[in-house]
Write a structure and sequence with these properties.
The structure holds two protein chains of two kinds. By secondary structure, chain A is mainly alpha-helical. Helix content of chain A is 80%, strand content 0%. Chain B has helices at 2-23, 28-49, 53-78, 82-106. Classes of the chains: A mainly alpha, B mainly alpha.
Chain lengths: 113, 112
């Protein structure tokens, strides 16, 4: 009974973080800030949901598949986010009007690129 | 104008959540799947409207992550383990697709 409750709380928190991350994806003004909000979907949202599935199902094949999914998502998602933001900056997509400084651009120029 | 958009957005979200959690009668897991489907609807809004190509790539990436969570919920609801196999394969394919889109967006060829 207690295990059911804890697992359902983890699943509910994961769904709530997914929803808030998608809300940030819709509302924020810029590609880079949208990416920053949407990556929260991964680290707390879907990973928390899969951890809740692991708590609900215990040490069975179902639960171990959920743990494997957490490990895989934690390995791959930051790499994809980094590649997308680098490609967006190199293809010349501007920052939002409110942003103050662009250190990636100035560092590239100081090396004589 | 800004205040009107705020009020419209909060009203739409409030109506959706009221209909989901108080009017709709069903198991708790089905309500959670409904919230995930609302999130997918907003992501599709960003895919259609998004002003630059990078916005669309980010939105498709996040759609893959949401689909993994939804498949885990389906597995809990039907009590079948093979949904998580589909979720793992979906994660792998979504990762490869994001890297390929990023490479095309940067202006390089795929065999570079």
């Amino acid at each position: 009974m207690i295990r059911q409750t804890i697992g359902l709380v983890f699943v509910g928190v994961g769904i709530a973080f997914d929803f808030l991350g998608v809300l940030g994806l819709v509302r924020l003004p810029d590609v880079y800030s949208r990416l920053q909000a949407a990556t929260k979907c991964v680290t707390f949202g879907t990973a928390g949901l899969l951890f809740g599935v692991f708590i609900l199902k215990g040490f069975s094949s179902f639960g171990f598949k959920a743990l494997l999914g957490i490990a895989f998502i934690f390995l791959t998602s930051p790499v994809a986010a980094q590649a997308i933001s680098r490609a967006a900056h190199r293809s010349g997509i501007p920052l939002a009007e409110e942003s103050v400084i662009d250190l990636y651009k100035t560092d590239g120029k100081s090396k004589g690129e | 104008m800004r205040v009107a958009r705020w009020i419209l957005g909060v009203a739409v979200l409030g109506v959706l959540f009221y209909l989901n959690f108080f009017v709709f009668q069903g198991p708790l897991l089905v309500k959670m799947v409904n919230v995930s489907l609302f999130s997918s609807l907003f992501v599709l809004f960003r895919v259609v409207v998004g002003p630059s190509p990078a916005d669309r790539v980010v939105a498709v990436d996040i759609l893959g992550v949401l689909t993994i969570g939804m498949l885990a919920l389906f597995g809990l609801f039907y009590d079948q383990g093979f949904f998580l196999d589909i979720a793992l394969i979906w994660a792998l394919l979504s990762f490869v697709a994001s890297l390929a889109f990023a490479k095309i967006l940067e202006g390089r060829r795929l065999d570079d």
